[in-house]
Each structure stands twice: as structure tokens, then as C-alpha cells.
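Lab channel / #folding
Pinned by the channel admin:
"Please post every new chain as: sequence first, then the C-alpha cells as a reply. Keep commentary short and put observations after the output so the thread stays searchable."

First post following the new format, from NK:
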Amino acid sequence: DSRVAENDGVPAQNFYAQALRTIQEESLTYRKFMHRVKIKLIEEALKRANGNKMKAAKLLGMSDTNMYRSI
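Reply from TO:
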């Protein structure tokens, strides 16, 4: 699946390497890093759903209640 292999045209290997550098450079805990990732995913889903929170939640496979709690 190309969505797994690439992230906005960036090969998965480079994406993961960049993520590890971010964690190390900013001294992030796993929890803080994953929170950032979750927020970025929600932002992207909201863009793709033209701001419709219910559609964005569906795109992410999460309940709208869970998404509301995250933002």
C-alpha cells in the first residue's frame, strides 16, 4: 500500500529516520511524540474532510467523541 510506503512523497525509511531525529533532538518522550503524531493526523484528516469533524473521524477510523477529546 503506497500510503504505508510513503508519507507525502517521502519514503517510509526516511520518514522514520526523521521521526527518530526529532525525538532525539527535542528530547521528547514517546508519549509526547505520539501525541504530536496524533494531532498531525487529525489536522490532515480535517483538511481532507474540509473541516467536517465527523468525516475526519471516519477517515481516521476513530469515534467522533474520541477525536473531539484529542483536539
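NK: Confidence is low (pLDDT under 50) at residues 1-6.
TO: also worth noting, The two ends are 28 Å apart (CA to CA).
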